[in-house]
Amino acid sequence: VPILGICRGHQLLATAFGGGMYQDIYAQLPNAQGHNPQIPKTLPAHQVCLQGDSVLARVLGLQDGDAIQVNSIHHQAVSRVPKSFRVTALAADGVIEAMEAYPEKSILSVQWHPEQMAYAGDVLQQKLFAHLVSEATLFAQAKAVHRSVIVLDSHVDTPMHFTPDFDLRQRGNTLVDLPKMEEGLVDVSVMVAYLPQRERDDDSLRQATNYAVDKLESIRRLTFAHPDIATVATTVEEIRRAKELGLRVIVPAIENGYAIGKDISNVARFGEMGVCYITLCHNGDNDLCDSARKSKQEHGGLSDLGREVVREMNRQGIMVDVSHAAPTTVRDVLSISTAPIIASHSSARALCDHPRNLTDEDALAIAERGGVVQVCLYAGFICEQEEAASVVMAADHIDHFVRLLGIEHVGIGSDFDGDGELIGCRGSNDLIRLTVELLRRGYTTTQLRLLWGENFLRVMETAKAQSKCQ
Q: 237: which residues sit within 8 A by CB, 6+ positions away?
């Protein structure tokens, strides 16, 4: 929720988020001056100097180093801004006069009283309230979008954190649970049974299959434990019905075809368990294909077994997911699959040169065959300087793919609980902030409907429909 803090509100925000306070600036800062003069509140008391390229400076139409006149009515002050906040204005005596949390949170705060000066006709101070109204309007629009469309996150790794006492209904330490989905107005989370790549001997392969089965059963058990608020869905029709009923939806999937082992009958077995897609590999080659990372390029793309698995996935109506796959694997899949394919959580290599990201060439090939690329929110795939990766940059990746592929071939797969996390988007409850950013860039409700779910659902429905014709 967008927030503007004023005076005590500024101090309260600093305290609530873990910053520091001067309880009495005149006792603790000998040089403090002019912060509580006995003059009307509508009159300026001193100057503050803007710091850096900030939202505050842009809102006021100013820049780093510019000074403005402010009123002042306080004897306490912020001594240290909280983590993820930054100082955006200082008084001459060093008192922190403004801070903000963008892009982590939609929070801006000031030590002075802009409402008093705005009421007296100060046009500059009025801009702060115009900004708040604008941000609140975008947030209200984002909520309206989320309520009217199916919001689907195509890849979360939450099941890897399941324990015997895990409860999806409880707000916990995972980035995805039912309370967070409700807060972010997220309708659908595709939860994967993730398997790291291990040994490939017969015993290890049996263990991998059993592990995947156990995780898939856990997904169903933990979801069906709360039938009043959540359900498992395995078809597009079930997802749409759940949206109408106001239920959160969990859709099962598998990350790493290692779970199949060398037994192709496991594909049908997983299909019967409701798996909507199988990611062919993870980090490292398996018996099906070469991976984008830690690969020895032993197959030159798909192995003979991998080719049979792709054909069997087509027959079973299970989407083929090429996230994590080597470019040679992606091209082999496209040459074999009779159904459109997906990249459930892959970003643009053109913006972040990481081997896990898709080249424009491969992304175009996926789109040309009716598939969809779901932008991943993993920091290292969004920006080469991981610590700087933000929700704004994720929107840049979406923009890139929309321009390149068309709006009908792009979606969002967060990779939450599998290390997916960005500044400003740290869980299902934050996904609405990505919608805010896209609205800010001019995306319409119709376009957001496609991005947030309809593109993925189209491919899911097509895969099911084509399987019935085989």
A: none
Half-sphere CA count of 181, side-chain side, radius 13 A:
28
Confidence check: pLDDT of 468 > 80: no
Q: Are strands 77-80 and 20-22 parallel, antiparallel or unpaired?
A: antiparallel
Instruction: Give yes or no for residue 69 having a pLDDT over 90.
Output: yes
HSE-CB at 327 with a 13 A cutoff on CA atoms is 12
Residue 218: CB atoms within 10 A of its CB come to 18
Domains of the chain: 3-137 (3.40.50.880), 149-467 (3.20.20.140)
Average confidence (pLDDT) over 360-369? 98
Tens digits of residue pLDDT in 31-42: 888 899 989 999
